[in-house]
Automatic annotation (TrEMBL):
The keyword Repeat does not apply. The lineage of its organism: Bacteria, Candidatus Tayloriibacteriota. It comes from Candidatus Taylorbacteria bacterium RIFCSPHIGHO2_12_FULL_45_16. This is RecF/RecN/SMC N-terminal domain-containing protein. It holds the Pfam family SMC_N. InterPro entries: P-loop_NTPase, RecF/RecN/SMC_N. Residues 387-442, 539-573 form a coiled coil. Keywords: Coiled coil. Residues 2-740 form the RecF/RecN/SMC N-terminal domain.
């Protein structure tokens, strides 16, 4: 026996705490009408989780609570209660409830006057869902086959075929599978909603991810160009650094001796001039020599100054020409032309000057026209101002160069005249034999040598100035390379082929490297790859989110397939269990029916509900136009159960032809048959024997004893025969205060009372 006791406190008519112990297979509850004995059956429904207050003969939860004595007095034991509780105790030593390790399980439900309900499992508060799940696993429910009242006995016959199927499914213990199926369907719906939500999120970020991917590809291409530029820069800087250092060292060495010789010649010239100045034989020719030497020195100094200035101007002209070539190369790609901020601001001021234009179409037309003019203007002219400025600078420098070259030419002519004068004086002086002329010869010799040495020094100075300009350009390029290509571009090697760095082929290769560098720099500037790290990070974050959503969608799809498989599996199991159960029920139904009626046939058959299909508006219109359409359209509905009976020795077929007593016996036979197939732990029969005569009561009692071998029975009855089958009787009485009280009678006393 699984059921141990039932305890009521403040529930309906049981004002005081009352308890029933179930120590025998059959327990009877007797009492006069109105004593409250049916409240015991309702107490079972209540504690097992019944949510329909109407089925508990009430309108509100408050109706379940003892409301005090009939006259409204608040006497001892008759004052109204604030709560009602029902506690049901089970023996769980044989693990009726598989998920609970206690040998005894208490289920308690408490309702308060504010309609709040509490559910307690062994004293711990739980949810109604937890209680229902636990009971369903033990084939126990708040309604159904194990709690049958007098009015509900006939319900299985009067119900529709669909309702009858639900009753039988509940009795067969299929409720737990149906509940699992319902839970699976709900989970499937939530899963599909989540799938749609995740798919929507993926669709939402897809365009942005696609855009970021293109940006990343652009950044990656830019990075490839930057790395290519780094390699070129390293190679270029290595060769250029070696070339500049080598050439500077060579020229410094080569110019050292000429400058040293020139200094010594200056000293010798001073000594010779002093001899001429101090000579007693100084004459007019000596003065001419001194004057001519001074003019020649002054002229050559001017030439040196102009030569250095020409070198500077040539360097500036070369730099400007390179800048012009770079700007012209950049302007070949029209889509990447630079637009100056002042030009964009001018467009903004133009648009802002429109004022309020009521016609929006006209306003957009004006804006579009301004932008088209702006684009057309900069498509053809952007950069021309900068190139023009540089052209003007080149022209200005060229004029200065031409002017200096003209001056240099004039000075060269003057120098030639002075040199020619030197030559004439030299010839004249050589003809003279006095000693003073020896000094003059020295002067001419020294000046001639000075001219040779100065030419060498001048050429070396010019070359050295060119190297200095190259070095300055080299330093500027280093700074620009660090900005464009990064620090690694300027960490170049300082060793290489020194002997070939100044060769014509080496300089040609260096010029080719320079052109490649300029091309890549222009492409880098045109790419506009700014904020590459931020774009890559954002792309990675977005891609990771998309990957996460894809995995989540994949998991949801997998969960959906598993749920569909589970639902299909439950459908198959429910169908198999149902059909197998129907076969067993029909066997027991036939046995009980034959026992009740002394023969005959009775069975349950699976049929499909036929119902009228609602016509559409088009079908109604067709009926109005055509006369050959059927008046009613019938379609098949869900499957249900039909009860087929045939009484012996009577031409009675079908439930509609049965008398009241025959219907009662048939319903009892069917209910007992259902209980025999899948016996619940206990069954409560609330006056189901009320319509039986004495002969049938005996048969009913025999069936009860047979049924008690599989389930504990709690019988609420007036029938003496039924009472005699009980091991213990509980009598329910009601005092003047309207409160129900319990009295118990042992088996021997029960037999005597029953007889």
């Amino acid at each position: 026996m699984y059921l141990k006791s039932l305890e009521l406190s403040g529930f309906k008519s049981f004002a005081k705490k009352s308890s029933l112990s179930f120590t025998t297979p059959i327990t009877g509850v007797v009492g006069p009408n109105g004593s409250g004995k049916s409240n015991i059956a309702e107490a079972f429904r209540f504690v097992l989780g019944e949510q329909s207050i109407k089925s508990l003969r009430g309108k509100r939860g408050e109706d379940m609570i003892w409301n005090g004595g009939g006259d409204g007095s608040v006497g001892t034991g008759t004052g109204r209660a604030n709560r009602a509780s029902v506690k049901l105790t089970f023996d769980n030593s044989r693990k009726l409830f598989t998920g609970i390790d206690f040998d005894e399980v208490n289920i308690e439900r408490v309702v308060h006057r504010d309609n709040n309900n509490e559910y307690l499992l062994n004293g711990s508060q739980v949810r109604l869902k937890d209680v229902i799940e636990m009971l369903a696993g033990a084939h126990i429910g708040a309604t159904g086959h194990q709690i049958i009242s007098q009015g509900e006995a006939d319900r299985i016959l009067s119900a529709s075929i669909r309702e009858r199927r639900e009753m039988i499914e509940d009795a067969l213990g299929l409720k737990i599978f149906q509940w699992k199926k319902l839970e699976s369907i709900r989970k499937l719906e939530r899963t599909e909603e989540n799938m749609e939500r995740v798919a929507s999120l993926r669709r939402e970020i897809a365009p942005h991810l696609k855009f970021l991917k293109k940006q990343v590809e652009k950044v990656e291409k830019t990075e490839e160009m930057r790395l290519e530029l780094v390699v070129l820069y390293k190679d270029y800087f290595t060769h250029e650094d070696i070339y500049i250092r080598t050439e500077k060292e060579r020229m410094t060495r080569e110019i050292f001796e000429p400058k040293k010789e020139l200094a010594e010649l200056d000293k010798e010239l001073e000594r010779a001039k002093k001899i001429l100045t101090d000579s007693k034989n100084k004459d007019k020719k000596s003065d001419e020599v001194i004057v001519l030497e001074g003019k020649l020195a002054e002229t050559r100094a001017d030439k040196d100054t102009i030569g250095r200035e020409l070198g500077r101007i040539e360097g500036e002209i070369s730099a400007n020409k390179r800048a012009i070539e770079k700007e012209e190369s950049r302007l070949k790609n029209e889509e990447s032309r630079t637009v100056y901020l002042r030009d964009v601001e001018e467009v903004l001021r133009t648009v802002e000057s429109f004022g309020v234009i009521e016609d929006a179409k006209k306003l957009f037309g004006e804006v579009i026209s301004v932008l088209k003019r702006f684009i057309a203007s900069h498509r053809s002219n952007t950069g021309s101002a900068l190139i023009g400025d540089m052209d003007q600078e080149v022209k200005k420098l060229s004029k200065e160069r031409d002017s200096l070259e003209s001056k240099l030419f004039s000075l060269s002519e003057i120098e030639s005249k002075y040199v020619h004068g030197y030559a004439e004086l030299k010839q004249m002086i050589e003809k003279e034999k006095d000693t003073n002329r020896d000094a003059e010869k020295d002067v001419f010799r020294i000046i001639a040598r000075q001219n040779e040495v100065r030419n060498v020094v001048s050429n070396l100075d010019t070359a050295l100035n060119s190297i200095v300009h190259d070095e300055e350009a080299f330093k500027r390029e280093l700074g620009e390379a660090g900005i464009i290509a990064g620090r690694e571009a300027v960490t170049f090697s300082e060793v290489g082929p020194h002997e070939d760095s100044a060769s014509e082929n080496a300089r040609k290769l260096q010029a080719d490297r320079r052109r490649q560098i300029e091309k890549i720099k222009i492409r880098l500037e045109d790419s506009g790859a700014i904020g590459g790290t931020e774009v890559i990070n954002e792309y990675r974050e977005t891609e990771e989110r998309d990957t996460f959503l894809a995995r989540e969608l994949e998991d949801l799809e997998k969960a959906k397939k598993e749920l569909l498989a589970l639902i299909a599996e439950l459908d198959v199991r429910i169908d198999i269990e149902f059909k197998t159960g129907i076969l067993k029920i029909n066997t027991e139904f036939q046995n009980f029916f034959s026992l009740m009626f002394g023969g005959g046939k009775a069975e349950l058959s699976v049929v499909k509900e036929m119902r009228h299909r609602r016509k559409s508006d088009m079908e109604d219109l067709g009926e109005a136009l055509r006369s050959d359409l059927p008046e009613d359209s019938v379609e098949e509905g869900p499957e249900g159960l039909e009860v087929n009976v045939s009484l012996p020795r009577k031409k009675v077929r079908g439930l509609m032809m049965l008398s009241g007593g025959e219907r009662a016996l048939t319903s009892i036979a069917l209910l007992f048959a259902v209980s025999q197939v899948n016996p619940p732990p206990f069954i409560i029969l609330d006056e189901t024997d009320a319509a039986l005569d004495e002969a049938n009561s005996k048969k009913y009692g025999d069936m009860i004893e047979s049924l008690s071998k599989h389930s504990q029975l709690i019988l609420i009855t007036h029938n003496r025969e039924t009472m005699s089958r009980a091991g213990i009787l509980y009598g329910v009485t009601m005092g003047s205060d309207g409160a129900s009280k319990l009295l118990s009678i042992q088996f021997e006393d029960a037999v005597r009372v029953a007889k």
